[in-house]
């Protein structure tokens, strides 16, 4: 059984990490968040120590290390702009880091993290769960086994509506979240590059606080993409069903269905990481470079 700590315990994505830690048979020892609405801990690890101040969290982890009861992994679910700082803390503490996407906002931060990996001998892992989705794996195999010179026409649309709160939170601040293309798009860009190859051309058609769209030429695909948090952009037939999210991936006019099957992907990610087979720093670079290039159009 491995010991885990969690930074960012009150966030939206944190329960998926708690669930993954529990389902892989490990223990969450300590959690940190400046907000104290963390009752979800009772559902997974009621005995975990919780802190709202980093200094006390750090002191507690240091005390555990001195008692030879150190933390093996630190999971990071903090706001995007704090990821690299919290990763550095985990490595220098002597733990491997498991960080939500985007791993960092700027590509050059990856180089610094790679240096600290070498200095400490610890590893940085990230969550790229779409690479573990059965439909996405099947699509990648289809492309790999198909004609090497074929260029596919692809359309990606992802609309996940957000209320007014979004713009008042760190997510609405481009300097903290990276904007819509990074905050809700980074794993889709990673997926596209993973399936269809390197970026050859990147054209941004629209970039606002709520919507981003553009065109990508990849090694084996021409991709028209659109990302938005604007509820009004969701197709009427979807809204009429009371749904607030719409995702569509079309290839050569055919719908690739991947709406379901997300519930256990964080657990699958953790299973791979615990076997030493997780996604590391270098796997994240192409999508982070692309998101940065898109953001430069602001």
From TrEMBL:
UniProt-listed InterPro entries = Gfo/Idh/MocA-like_OxRdtase_C, Gfo/Idh/MocA-like_OxRdtase_N, Gfo/Idh/MocA_Oxidoreductase, NAD(P)-bd_dom_sf
- Name all Gfo/Idh/MocA-like oxidoreductase N-terminal domain ranges: 3-125
A GO MF term: nucleotide binding
Q: Where is the Gfo/Idh/MocA-like oxidoreductase C-terminal domain?
A: 140-205
Domain of life, per UniProt, equals Bacteria
Pfam families given in the database record: GFO_IDH_MocA, GFO_IDH_MocA_C
Q: Which PANTHER family match?
A: D-GLUCOSIDE 3-DEHYDROGENASE (PTHR43249:SF1), UDP-N-ACETYL-2-AMINO-2-DEOXY-D-GLUCURONATE OXIDASE (PTHR43249)
The name of this protein is UDP-N-acetyl-2-amino-2-deoxyglucuronate dehydrogenase
Q: Which organism is it from?
A: Ohtaekwangia koreensis
């Amino acid at each position: 059984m491995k010991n885990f700590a969690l930074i960012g315990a009150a966030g939206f994505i944190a329960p998926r990490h708690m669930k993954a830690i529990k389902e892989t048979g490990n223990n969450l020892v300590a959690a940190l968040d400046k907000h104290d609405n963390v009752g979800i801990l009772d559902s997974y690890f009621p005995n975990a120590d919780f802190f709202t101040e980093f200094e006390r969290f750090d002191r507690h982890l240091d005390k555990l290390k001195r008692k030879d009861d150190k933390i093996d992994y630190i999971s990071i679910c903090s706001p995007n702009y704090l990821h690299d700082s919290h990763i550095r803390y985990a490595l220098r503490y002597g733990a491997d880091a498991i960080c939500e996407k985007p791993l960092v906002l700027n590509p050059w931060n990856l180089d610094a993290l790679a240096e600290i990996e070498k200095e400490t001998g610890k590893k940085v892992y990230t969550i790229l769960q779409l690479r573990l989705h059965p439909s996405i794996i099947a699509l990648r195999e289809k492309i790999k086994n198909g004609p090497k010179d074929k260029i596919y026409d692809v359309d990606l649309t992802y609309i996940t509506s957000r209320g007014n709160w979004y713009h008042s939170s760190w997510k609405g601040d481009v300097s903290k979240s990276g904007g819509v293309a990074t905050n809700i798009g980074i794993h889709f860009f990673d997926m596209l590059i993973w399936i269809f190859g390197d970026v050859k051309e990147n054209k941004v058609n629209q970039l606002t606080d709520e919507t981003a769209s553009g065109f990508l030429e990849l090694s084996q695909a021409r991709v028209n993409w659109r990302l938005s948090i604007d509820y009004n952009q969701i197709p009427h037939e979807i809204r009429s069903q009371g749904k607030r999210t719409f995702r569509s991936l079309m290839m050569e006019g055919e719908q690739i269905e991947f709406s379901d099957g997300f519930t256990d992907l964080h657990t699958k990610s953790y299973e791979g990481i615990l076997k030493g087979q997780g996604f590391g720093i270098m796997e994240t670079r192409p999508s982070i470079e692309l998101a940065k290039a898109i953001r430069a159009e602001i």
